[in-house]
Amino acid sequence: MRDALAKFMAAGRRLTEIEEMAKAAEYLPTSYANAIERVAVSGEGYYSRATPEDIERVKAAQKALAAEERRRGEIDRDDKLRALGLELDAIRVTLPGLAAAASIELGAIARRMMGGGNGR
User: How far apart are CA 98 and CA 96, in angstroms?
Assistant: First the structure.
């Protein structure tokens, strides 16, 4: 394959990657918060047992930390989506030129194939 066709196909693959990365970024806030929320607090200690008040304080702190992590995930998600959007826009600008050049190369390849490859 020729250069323009290879670049056009690479742009298509990158568009697919950007789409997958954008979908994954949408889950960052939940992922960050779930990492904190999955930790269980039992109150069982090696030397002593925690009181119900102690457990409630720890659970409240855990909730606050999960909310903080969710906010951090939202910021990271927005940053990632912004960067992907900029890249997507850059590809959008170059795509028409790449498509035109790839179309010309495909035409040349097709004519060569139809001619039996020996220039007829």
Answer: 5
Residue whose tokens read 């119900």: 52
SS (H, E, C) 57-99: HHHHHHHHHHHHHHHHHHHHHHHHHHHHHHHHHHHHHHHHHHH
Q: What is the pLDDT of residues 15-58, one digit of tens each?
A: 999 999 999 999 999 999 999 989 887 777 767 788 888 888 99
Distances 34 to 16, 67, 95, 113 between C-alpha atoms, Å: 28, 10, 39, 57
